[in-house]
Design goal:
The complex is a heterodimer of chains A (about 600) and B (about 350). Chain A has about 600 residues and is mainly α. In chain A, about 70% of the residues lie in helices and about 0% in strands. Chain B has a two-stranded antiparallel sheet with strand order 1-2. The chains are: A mainly alpha (about 600), B mainly alpha (about 350). Chain A: This is FA complementation group C.
Chain lengths: ~600, ~350
C-alpha cells in the first residue's frame, strides 16, 4: 500500500481492500493479538490521507475514524451498557473484570481435572481433554497479560509433563510469541521442556549477557541461578543434555575463551548443588574413596545410574572423582587425588592419540569429552594450580601436565611436550620471583615472564593462558607481602595486556574459595581483593589500548557468532532423538 | 471543597473542549496525558462523595452551573451528571474519538502498542490506551464460546456484582427505597430478549457469598422485589437449569418460598387435555410440561428437605379439596404427588 501511493490509487488497485480491512476489524481473533492488531492498524493508517484531495479519500478518512471510534467505545451488549451507566462502572474496568473472571473460571476448571499428580505408569492417561481444549482456546490469547495465570497453570499442570495434553498450536504460539510472560519457575521449566528453541534461547541469552559485559561478572553465580536453568536441568535429564550440547558447540568455536569456560563451570556447580538436593545419594560414595587411592578403582562401578544418565558421554571412571568438590575432601588428600586424576587422563589421552594414528574418528570424540568434563569440573584445575605454586619442591609434573592439558587439550602437531616445557619455564620463573628476597622485582626479572605471556606470531603458538593462570595463582598464594605481589602482578599483567583474562581467573578462584571456606585463609581473600582492584584500575585505564584491542579482536569472533545464533544450532541433537532419553530418564527417576 | 469544585468545573470544561471544539488538535502527548489525568481526578471525586450526600449535592450543584454555561457555548452540548463522573475517562475517550478534528498523530498514540513495562495501565500513560481496551474486549469474545464452565457466565457474574454494589450503596444511604426499586427496574426489566440475561444477573447477584450485613439486606431487598415481579420469577423458574434453581433455593429461604408459590400457581393453571392424555399449561403459565413441572417440584424438595414434609402436606390438602380421587387426570395435585412418590 505504501508503494502504491495515495489512498485513491490504492482503492482503485485493490477495490476490496476497504471491505477486508473493515471485516477484520470486527474479528476478535484478529484484534486480540498484539501483532495482528498492529498490522491491522498499520493498514488503516496507510489508508488514511493527511491531506485528502478527493471525495474517495475524504470518505476513507471518515470511515477510518468511525471504525476506530466504534472499536474503542462501542458496547455491543445493551444490558451491560445500561448497567454500566447506572452503576458508574467504566467499560474498561468492566471488560477487564469479565476477562479476569473468565480466566479464573478456566483456571479452576484446570485445577479440577482428574489428571494424576505424577503417574508412574505411563499408560495411565487422563481421559478428560480439559487441558487440550483449554490450551486450544487460549492460543489467540498467548500474549494477553491477563491470560497468563491460565497459561502458567496449563504449563505447570502435572499432567502436561507426561502426556501430549497441550495442543500443538499452543506450543507453537508459545514459541513464536516474544512477550514476556510472567512465568514462574515451574511454568518456565515446562516451557523449556516442551520447546527446544526456547531452552536454547535461554542458554544463549545467558551466555550473551555474560560475554557482553566484558569479563566474567562479579555475580556470575547469581546470574546463572537467576535463569533457573540449573534447577530445571536437575529435574529433567534431557534438558541438561541439551544445555551441554550447546556448551560443547560454543566451546568448539570459542577455544580459549575463559569467560565461556567459567560460565560452564559455574553452571555445572550450580546444577550439582540442585541435583544434590533432589538426589542426595548420588555422590555419597565419595567418603569411602578419598582416603585410600586403592579404593577408587573399586568404587568406580558404584557410580550412580542417574549421574551416568546426566553425563552419558563422559568417561565413567572419571565421573565421580571429577565431580567431587575439593571442599568435600580433606586437603591432605588433594595431591594424591590429583595425581590419580592426571594418571587416568594421561592414559585416556594416550589411548586417543594411538587411535588417532590409526584413523579412528571416535577417538576425537572421546578426547573432547574428557576435556569437556574437565572444563565442567575445573575446580580441580584450580587446586592443581594452587598446589603447584605453594609447593616448595621441584615442579610436580603430574600437576603441570594437568594444567597443560586443560589449556591445550589437543595435541595438534604433537606440541604438548613443547607446552609442557613452557609451563615448566613459567613455573620456575614464578617460583624464583615469589621466593626471592628482592624488594621490588625490576623489569629484567619480569621480562622473561612477560615474553612468555605475549602471543607469538608463528604456530605452534600456545595461548598464554596457562602462564597467566600460574601468574595469578602465584600472586595470590605466594608468601610475599601484599604490596610486592600486587606490584609484580600489576607490572606483568599490564605489560602483557591480559586484564580481562586475569580478572576472569581471579573471579573463578574467588568463587571456589568462597564455596568451601575450609582451606582458605583471610590473607588469601584480602590478597584476591587487592589484586582485583588492581585489575579494575587497569581495565579502567586506557593506557594499553593497543594490547587490549588485539585481545579484544581475538574474543570478538566468538561473540559475534553467538549473537548470530539465535536459531536452533545445527550441532544440537534434533528433538526427535529426545523422546528416548526422556522416557529413559523418567523411568530412572521413577524408581 | 472550593478547590475541588473548581477542579471539577475545569475538568468538565476540558471534556467539552475535547468533544466539541478544534482546540484539541493542538494537543501533544503531554497535554493528552494531562487531560486523562483530569478525567481520573473526576473519578476520585466520585469515589469521595458518592456516599456523602451533602458533599454530593454540592458537587451536583457545581455541575449544573457548569453545564448551563457550556450549553450556551456549544450547541450540541451533552450534560455531565454526577453519575458520569466515575466514567470520565471513557467519556473523554469517546469525546476525542468522535471529534473529527482529532489529529491522526494523537490517534496513533492512543492506538499504539501499550507500554510493555507497565503491565497495567498507569494513568499517566496514554499510549496504547485503546489497544488494551480492544484487546480485553476481543479476549472476552474469544473466550465466550468456552463458557459453561460454571452455572453463570462471567459477564453475568460481573454484572451481578455491579448490581449488588450499587444496591448496597443506594440502600445504605438511607434514601428512598423507591430509588432502589427504580434502579432495579431500569437495569433488569429491559426487554423480552434480555429477560434471560437478567435472570442470570439476578442469579449471580443472589449467589454471591454475602459476608457483610449490607449485602444480606441488599439481597433481601432484591428478593422482595423479585417476589413482586412475577414475570421475572416465572422466567427464572422456567429457563434456569435445575442445578442453579436448587442452589438459589438452598441459599435463600425467601426464594425457596417464592419459587414454591410460583410452582403451585403454575400447576394450578394447568388443564388436563383428554386428547393428549396429559396436563398442559394454559393461560399465563410458562410453557412447562407436566413432567418438567414434576421435576421442578422434585428438585426443590431435594434441595430443601425441610420444605418437603410441609409441602407434601399442602399438596395433599389441595388434592383433597379437589375431591381426593386417585384416578389420573382429575387433580393435578394428585398426579404430581403420585409422580413424586415414584
Amino acid at each position: 500500500m505504501v508503494s502504491i501511493g495515495s489512498t485513491a490509487e490504492s482503492m482503485k488497485e485493490l477495490p476490496f481492500l476497504g471491505q477486508i480491512v473493515g471485516r477484520l476489524c470486527w474479528n476478535p481473533y484478529v484484534t486480540v493479538g498484539d501483532t495482528n492488531r498492529g498490522l491491522l492498524l498499520q493498514c488503516l493508517w496507510g489508508l488514511y490521507s493527511e491531506n485528502p484531495s478527493n471525495a474517495v479519500e475524504r470518505k476513507a478518512n471518515q470511515w477510518i475514524r468511525k471504525v476506530l471510534c466504534r472499536l474503542a467505545t462501542e458496547e455491543e451488549n445493551p444490558a451491560a451498557e445500561i448497567l454500566m451507566k447506572s452503576t458508574g462502572v467504566p467499560p474498561k474496568e468492566y471488560h477487564l473484570r469479565v476477562l479476569k473472571k473468565m480466566v479464573k473460571q478456566h483456571q479452576e476448571n484446570i485445577g479440577k481435572t482428574c489428571c494424576p499428580k505424577k503417574s508412574t505408569d505411563p499408560s495411565c492417561r487422563c481421559s478428560c481433554d480439559v487441558i487440550q481444549t483449554t490450551s486450544e482456546a487460549f492460543v489467540p490469547l498467548i500474549d494477553c497479560p491477563e491470560a497468563s495465570p491460565v497459561i502458567c497453570s496449563l504449563l505447570q499442570h502435572p499432567g502436561t509433563s507426561f502426556t501430549d495434553a497441550l495442543s500443538e498450536d499452543f506450543l507453537d504460539a508459545l514459541n513464536s510469541t516474544d512477550s514476556n510472560l510472567a512465568l514462574d519457575e515451574t511454568a518456565l521449566v515446562s516451557v523449556w521442556y516442551h520447546s527446544l528453541p526456547r531452552l536454547e534461547e535461554a542458554v544463549l541469552d545467558l551466555l550473551e549477557s555474560v560475554i557482553s559485559t566484558g569479563s566474567a561478572p562479579q555475580n556470575l553465580e547469581q546470574q546463572v541461578l537467576k535463569t533457573q536453568l540449573p534447577k530445571a536441568c536437575a529435574h529433567h535429564c534431557s534438558m541438561f543434555l541439551v544445555v551441554n550440547d550447546i556448551f560443547r558447540s560454543i566451546l568448539r568455536q570459542a577455544e580459549g575463551n575463559l569467560v565461556v569456560q567459567s560460565v560452564i563451570q559455574t553452571f555445572t556447580r550450580c546444577f550439582l548443588k540442585e541435583l544434590e538436593e533432589l538426589e542426595p545419594q548420588a555422590k555419597t560414595y565419595i567418603c569411602t574413596f578419598t582416603m585410600n587411592n586403592n579404593l577408587l578403582s573399586a568404587g568406580k562401578s558404584q557410580t550412580s545410574t542417574s549421574l551416568k544418565a546426566f553425563f552419558p558421554q563422559s568417561p565413567p571412571s572419571l565421573l565421580v572423582p571429577l565431580l567431587t568438590l575439593p571442599s568435600e575432601m580433606p586437603q591432605e588428600a588433594w595431591k594424591n587425588h590429583l595425581e590419580w586424576l592426571t594418571a587416568s587422563l594421561q592414559r585416556l589421552t594416550e589411548q586417543e592419540e594411538e587411535e588417532e594414528d590409526s584413523q579412528s574418528s571416535r577417538s576425537h570424540h572421546n578426547g573432547f569429552e574428557t576435556w569437556f568434563l574437565l572444563v565442567q569440573c575445573s575446580h580441580w584445575v584450580q587446586v592443581a594450580g594452587e598446589l603447584l605454586v605453594t609447593s616448595e619442591a621441584e615442579p610436580c609434573s603430574p600437576l603441570l601436565w594437568l594444567l597443560t592439558f586443560y589449556y591445550h587439550p589437543t595435541n595438534r602437531w604433537h606440541c604438548r611436550a613443547a607446552h609442557l616445557e613452557e609451563a615448566k619455564k613459567a613455573w620456575s620463573h614464578l617460583h624464583a620471583l615469589s621466593s626471592s628476597s628482592v624488594v621490588s622485582p625490576t623489569a629484567d626479572h619480569l621480562q622473561p615472564l612477560i615474553t612468555l605471556l605475549s602471543p607469538k606470531p608463528q604456530p605452534p603458538s600456545p595461548a598464554p593462558l596457562l602462564t597467566l593462570s600460574l601468574t595469578v595463582y602465584s600472586a595470590v598464594f605466594c608468601r610475599l607481602p601484599h604490596s610486592q605481589s600486587v606490584e609484580f602482578f600489576h607490572t606483568v599483567v599490564h605489560a602483557a595486556g591480559l586484564h580481562h583474562e586475569a580478572a576472569c581467573v581471579l573471579r573463578s578462584l574467588q568463587h571456589r574459595l568462597n564455596e568451601g571456606s575450609c582451606s582458605s585463609s583471610d590473607t588469601v581473600h584480602v590478597r584476591i581483593t587487592k589484586l582485583q582492584s588492581t585489575v579494575t584500575h587497569m581495565q579502567a585505564g586506557g593506557n594499553s589500548h593497543t594490547a587490549l584491542n588485539s585481545r579484544a579482536q581475538e574474543d570478538t569472533p566468538a561473540v559475534t557468532k553467538l549473537s548470530v545464533k539465535k536459531q536452533p544450532l545445527a550441532h544440537v541433537r534434533p528433538l526427535a532423538e529426545f523422546p528416548h532419553n526422556i522416557n529413559a530418564s523418567h523411568s530412572a527417576e521413577a524408581e | 471543597m472550593e478547590a475541588v469544585l473548581k477542579n471539577v468545573a475545569s475538568a468538565v470544561e476540558l471534556l467539552a473542549v475535547a468533544a466539541y471544539s478544534d482546540a484539541m488538535s493542538q494537543w501533544d502527548e503531554k497535554t493528552l496525558s494531562r487531560a486523562f489525568h483530569w478525567a481520573r481526578y473526576c473519578e476520585h471525586v466520585y469515589t469521595r462523595f458518592h456516599t456523602n450526600s451533602a458533599g454530593r449535592r454540592v458537587v451536583e450543584k457545581q455541575l449544573q452551573h457548569t453545564n448551563a454555561r457550556l450549553r450556551d457555548a456549544f450547541a450540541d452540548y451533552r450534560e455531565v451528571s454526577f453519575m458520569d463522573l466515575p466514567r470520565c475517562e471513557h467519556l473523554l475517550l469517546l469525546a476525542l474519538l468522535s471529534n473529527p478534528h482529532l489529529p491522526i498523530s494523537t490517534m496513533k498514540i492512543l492506538f499504539g502498542k501499550k507500554d510493555v513495562a507497565s503491565r497495567y495501565y498507569d494513568y499517566k500513560e496514554v499510549t496504547g490506551l485503546c489497544s488494551h481496551l480492544i484487546q480485553c474486549k476481543s479476549a472476552c469474545k474469544v473466550l465466550c464460546p468456552f463458557s459453561g464452565l460454571s452455572a453463570v457466565d462471567a459477564d453475568a457474574e460481573v454484572q451481578g456484582e455491579m448490581l449488588m454494589k450499587r444496591l448496597d450503596a443506594l440502600l445504605s444511604q438511607g434514601s428512598d427505597p423507591q430509588q432502589a426499586e427504580h434502579f432495579l427496574h431500569s437495569v433488569l426489566l429491559l426487554s423480552e430478549e434480555a429477560a434471560h440475561h437478567s435472570c442470570l444477573v439476578i442469579t449471580a447477584a443472589l449467589l454471591t457469598a454475602s459476608d457483610s450485613g449490607t449485602q444480606t439486606s441488599s439481597q433481601s431487598f432484591l428478593l422482595n422485589w423479585l417476589q413482586k415481579e412475577h414475570g421475572m420469577l416465572q422466567h427464572m423458574g422456567s429457563t434456569l437449569p435445575s442445578a442453579v434453581l436448587k442452589d438459589l433455593a438452598r441459599a435463600h429461604g425467601k426464594f425457596r418460598d417464592a419459587y414454591f408459590s410460583a410452582l403451585k400457581k403454575w400447576a394450578s393453571e394447568m388443564e388436563y387435555s383428554l386428547n393428549d392424555g396429559e396436563w398442559l399449561p394454559e393461560g399465563t403459565a410458562p410453557s412447562l410440561s407436566f413432567q418438567e413441572m414434576v421435576e421442578h417440584f422434585s428438585d426443590l424438595f431435594d434441595a430443601c428437605p425441610s420444605l418437603r414434609r410441609n409441602a407434601e402436606d399442602e399438596l395433599l390438602a389441595l388434592k383433597i379439596l379437589d375431591g381426593d380421587f386417585d384416578a389420573r387426570g382429575l387433580s393435578v395435585w394428585g398426579d404430581i404427588l403420585s409422580e413424586l412418590k415414584k
